[in-house]
Amino acid sequence: MPRFYPNPFLRNPEALPSVDDVYKKVRDKCVSAIRGLCTYLYERTGSFDWSDLSTYTGISGILFVSLRLRNDEQLVQECRLDRFMNEINTHVAEVFRRRDKSKLQKNISVFTSNYTAPCLIGALSEHHNKHSTLGMEAFSAYVKCAKYAMNEMPNEALYGRIGYLAGLIALSDAGYPVEQETIHLIVENILREGRYLSQKIGKRRGDYEELVQNRPDAPALPPLMFKWHDKFYLGAAHGFAGILLTLLKVHEKLPNALPEGSLEELILPTTKWLCKLQQPSGNWPSSLGESLNRDRLMQWCHGATGIVPLMLRAYKVTGDEEYLISARRGADAIWERGLLTKGCGLCHGSAGSGYALLSVYQNTGDAKYLTMAAAMLAQLVARFG
């Protein structure tokens, strides 16, 4: 089975929606799809699987949808979602009560943990109410998990430290008093391990050359190296892109939380290294080693879809045009191969492709990418809606 459907707009570009269509016809399709999805969830609230409280695949993810919808009252009214919102909101306290700390020693990522995900949802749901007992209790429970970041665990987003750090940033954005020292200690640990692994590889002759397949044009060994399950993944879920993007967010939002000199000496040089691994197609390989010469996966978890947001953030931080050019090349590759047969999810589905295209529009103002994202959405709804 092919990994993606042919993009019909490549042969028929005049069929692309206009900017006016995006705000009318395509928006109507969005409203209809949101209403249908929320109705589906509402009718099944009594049969939720309470064994999975995660954001990635479980109940906290459903609750997070309601939190995002709550920020747009007009959309809630237009989609007639009052019953859905009221029903879903009754589960926030319950999911927090059921949080499970049995695996905290090995996984504190807000994406997949059955403990930190409910804590984050509980805190974010009540951030507007400074007197909420639930909000402060959930915030306190989340912050106390920082001690586990010192345990042996991966640094990546889906199961590791970066997934926990992303939650701290979200809480800080919501107005909670996250201590910069807490973030500093976690970042310091991540950078220490990344630097140690890079130095270890550099000391063993031939190791890095093997990872880059002895390519004469390969960039030099970066100051940070990360691996998950013995593979050097490059993408957002398990690899460099997710780690570096979150570290750049820390720099933007809480710059004093970064160790002195780490942005210029460690984070940005490693980001530039990843930029230079972009393939002629505009995509990125999924990992170093044998996969370096393959151009197969175009998803948020592996490939351009998850790396484009990093390139955009790096451009925003540095003003270096090479990052913007890289992001545009990645977006064009996503446009060609992003209508994925796996489904409509964010991680390895077409919604992730649309999200990446939309992020390019938001960072450049180029309406070309807005219409691309809208067309991707229209195809997604037609095939999977």
TrEMBL record:
It comes from the Eukaryota. GO terms for cellular component: plasma membrane. Zn(2+) binds at C301, C347, H348. Keywords: Metal-binding, Zinc. One of its GO terms (biological process) is carbohydrate metabolic process. InterPro entries: 6hp_glycosidase-like_sf, LANC-like, LanC-like_prot_euk. The keyword Metal-binding applies. Pfam families: LANC_like. GO terms for molecular function: metal ion binding. PANTHER family: LANC-LIKE PROTEIN, LANC-LIKE PROTEIN 3. Belongs to the LanC-like protein family. This is Lanthionine synthetase C-like protein. It comes from Mesocestoides corti.
